[in-house]
UniProtKB/TrEMBL annotation:
GO terms for cellular component: cytosol. Transmembrane segments: none annotated. Residues 3-93 form the ABM domain. InterPro entries: ABM_dom, AI-2_Isomerase_LsrG, Dimeric_a/b-barrel. The keyword Membrane does not apply. GO terms for molecular function: monooxygenase activity. SUPFAM superfamilies: Dimeric alpha+beta barrel (SSF54909). Pfam families: ABM. Keywords: Monooxygenase, Oxidoreductase. This is Antibiotic biosynthesis monooxygenase. It comes from Nostoc punctiforme NIES-2108. It comes from the Bacteria.
Length: 96
């Protein structure tokens, strides 16, 4: 069964430009993972510190594999999460 994850990040204002520079590499490497269907990052038009990530994987195993990848550990766990004011992970299922 496909796995869809929505993640909401609130970046510390002082870290926004630095973190935005990390996102192209994160997206490129994630999209090349086996089991990744899509990976899109959005920025709020009204608040540049707010990002929404939409992640779509073939199954739960692929989503879990993403969290164990070297680029996730290096970019997300080490370089982004410590500089967030808030982080929300929402697991969703497609209805229609």
């Amino acid at each position: 069964m496909e796995k869809i994850v929505i993640v909401k990040w609130r970046i510390k204002e002082s870290e926004t430009s630095r973190i935005l520079k990390l996102l192209p590499e994160l997206a490129e490497k994630t999209k090349s993972e086996e089991g990744n269907i899509s990976y899109t990052i959005y920025q709020s038009e009204s608040d540049p510190c707010e990002l929404i990530l939409c992640e779509h994987y073939t199954d739960t195993a692929a989503a879990e594999s993403h969290k164990r990848s070297e680029h996730y550990k290096k970019i997300v766990a080490e370089e982004i999460i410590p500089h967030l004011e808030a982080r929300e992970v929402i697991l969703v299922k497609k209805l229609v």
